Amino acid sequence: MINDVWIAGGAMTRFNRRKDGSSFRDWAREAVQSALLDAALEPADIDTLVLASESDFFTLQLNPAALLADECGLAGVAAKRVEGGGASGHVAVQAGVADIASGLARRVMVLGVEPSASHLDGADVSALYGLSFDAWTDGMTGVDSSSLYALSVLAYMHRTGALHKDFARIAVRNRAHAQHNLNAHLPLKIAIEDVAASPIVASPYHRLDCSPLSDGAAALILARAANLPELARPRTRFRATTCATDTVRLGERNDPGYFHGKNLCATRAYKMADVAPGQINLAEVYDSYSGAQLQALEALNLAPDVLHAERSGVFDSNGALPVNLSGGLLGQGAPVGATGVAQLFTAACQLEDRYAGKQAKHAPRMALVDTHGGIATLNCVSILEVP
Amino acid sequence: MKYPINLQYTIAEGGLAPYFEALRRSEALASECKSCQRVAFPARMVCGACGSHQVQWTALSGLASLIYRTDGTELSFALVKFAGADTLSTVGLLNPGTQTTSGRLRSLANGQSGIWIELNETTDGDNHV
Q1: Are residues A336 and A323 in contact, defined by beta-carbon separation less than 8 angstroms?
Q2: Could you tell me which residues are beta bridge partners of residue A328?
Q3: What is the pLDDT of residue A182?
Q4: Looking at residues A98-126, what average pLDDT do you find?
Q5: How many Cα atoms are found within 13 Å in the side-chain-facing hemisphere of B80?
Q6: Exposed end of chain B (fewer CB within 10 Å): N or C?
Q7: Three-state secondary-structure class, residue A151
Q8: CA distances to A53, A248, B42, B46 from B57, in Å
Q9: DSSP bridge partners of A45
């Protein structure tokens, strides 16, 4: 188990497509200032800034960690930028955990920010995301993210018998959860029929099966117990945080529909945390597409038969294992660098019984957070608890 | 503020240059592991199955069978199996209006990189591999 790394506090901005003229520098400042306030800390208390930002092409800012340290009133701190595709935020938190656990820093500010929605045209973003896979093969062929996820989920459907209506149920449920989340990008009240009636993107996926491109920022402050300010609320600690990769090309995987790298990552996490999957009672998983949520839950071993569990309501808000009460990427949104940071902040708030959105029926004690880049190519899993 | 940026990359193809040169001629040049004989297309410099660095080039026919296919509003892509390969390949479909399940590797006339297949127009010509 990870020794003595705690979440001192955190914050996130609204996730949406900004139309108010605010910039990613504004969102970064807002997230950092709010996280400091939440943790009852001052800028001088922070030793290191770890920045998660997927691509310079979004911000058009090289060396962004130093820039944002300065911008956020943290000049003088150690700073680095960490990237892992869609998992960038979670990888950055892992870098922060390592700094705390090793003693390199007393307190680390992890900041995730991305102007994924408003800086570039959708076609330009799609072209850039196409380089998230093997740029020399898939990228140069023009295969987009939606098509690769679609090919993967077709293999999953073939193996398991899952139907599109199983995915549509998730698309509806996560958007319903998002209606309780003031920071959510897509708090939609929709029905299963609406998903199938939305425009086709890459069969079997329709527009409502897809997570949005979002703008936003999130921040998390990490520290050892001895360096946490005295606060009345309980604090969350990391039992485990792990990373594992899969082969990049979908066609080289034994089963293109199975997230093997994620399974490897989760297996390492359960071992590091010394817990069994059955002990997890809350999960935030990477639902970049509706079907990917089922593929993720399968790889995470969170139910013996995930499809049966999904159809039985196990993952509903009042089920035994509520999933994506924030709305997930489908509902809360996905400003890439901020996504994993926000997932972890959400789970911590749930565990600390101070989450402002949809809460689990039964107070969770241990939560799993799952994030990935590519088609579950670079995977991160953390297991959190309030002891 | 507006800030246009136009970047033109020239990317060296390194050890995979023979694979890309063949692709531009509509030829499927795969890598074959000398240790475990796994044939990979697209080619790779290290065997994805056993990790051996001892790989050699092997020419495939370029005939491919569709395994999974996805259609968008304008473009269609597929996971296909090229005859003689042990891996699947992600390809673009040059004639997505065709619903047959087999085709042949084709390069784009403009020389752009990528892996594309042209589907057979009739099932009579299906080349199941």
Answers
A1: no
A2: none
A3: 97
A4: 94
A5: 31
A6: N
A7: helix
A8: 39, 21, 11, 12
A9: none
How far apart CA B47 and CA B16 sit, in angstroms, is 13
Sheet order of strands, B28-33 included: B39-40, B28-33, B55-60
Q: Which residue of B has its CA nearest to A22?
A: B1
Would you call A200 an interface residue with chain B, using a CB distance cutoff of 8 Å? yes
Residues of chain B in contact with residue A252, where contact means CB-CB under 8 angstroms, are 40, 48, 87-88
pLDDT tens digits along A51-87? 999 999 999 999 999 999 999 999 999 999 999 999 9
- For residue A220, what is the DSSP state? E
Query: Dmax over Cα atoms in chain A, in whole Å?
Result: 55
How far apart CA A345 and CA A332 sit, in angstroms, is 13
Token pair of A282, please?
Answer: 């809350």
Report the alpha-carbon distance of residue A231 to residue A39 in Å, rounded: 8
Provide the percentage of residues in chain A whose pLDDT is more than 90: 93
- Name the strand (E) or helix (H) holding A284: strand A282-284
**Burial class of residue A296 (count of CB atoms within 10 Å of its CB; 0-12, 13-18, 19+):** buried
Can you list the domains of chain A with their CATH numbers?
6-120+213-227 (3.40.47.10)
Record the tokens describing residue A349, joined without a space. 């708030």
Who among B70, B75, B116 is closest to A151 (CB)?
B70
> What is the ipTM score, two decimals?
0.95
